[in-house]
Specification:
alpha/beta; five-stranded mixed β-sheet
Length: about 280
Amino acid sequence: MMKGGLGKGLGALLSSEEIYEAGSPGFFLCPIEKIRANPQQPRKRVDPDSLAKLADSIRDKGVLQPLVVRPVEDGYELVAGERRWRASQKAGLRTVPVVIKDVSPDELLELALIENIQRQDLNPIEEAMAYQRLIEDLGLTQAEVSKRVGRDRATVANFLRLLQLPDYAREDLLEERFTMGHAKAILMVSAPELQRQLRDTIISKKLSVRKAEALARKLENEGDKPPRQPQQEDPNIQRLCEELTHAIGSPVRISQGKRGGRLEIRYDTPEELERIISLLRQ
């Protein structure tokens, strides 16, 4: 078992000699087909362009930093170094340098998460989902998660809040159609239909985070206002409208205000307007 907190990073588990020195215990060249992916890997997507560049570098320079693996049935399972493993496959390597570590299944997720956080490899949604898995699978509190991964509790809480986004907005963030700042603006709005409206506007008009937050505040404030109650129409006014409509032969509407009102007579053609004017002149 590993000693110490994982918040110190991979160095809490692996010494620099084990990571960088070919002569360290457990170091050897492993057939690449004997290695399988870490099922606890929090990163769901790998940028194909960056992977291609890494593969080109590996073809030219080789794998400069060994992969970290743990022994499993019929081979080895990755603990750290999935991008290097994928790029090595892409580069056509048959063997890769590895360091063996005895890591428990519960530690796999923590180590994969820390590696990706330190390398800034995770999308905000991927990071949020990884924190959620630490809480659900290992029974950790937010405070314990923050200590293990070396982030303050407020940061962990902000990431976890992203999981409250509607599914379409989570997908948008995962696909990098907008930023974490835009996602937090969407969460400022409580009504689902207004969240969708804000999301659509952010993408269609390419709003900055500041403008998205301003629009979120406007939508939320408008949503908090009680709907206008329709005014009760005065029965005397209603009767007068009916009498005028009958006398003129065109729809009549009277609207009252605090200081007077307005009389409206509807017409559809110029000829009808002339007829109404003639009646009013009599």
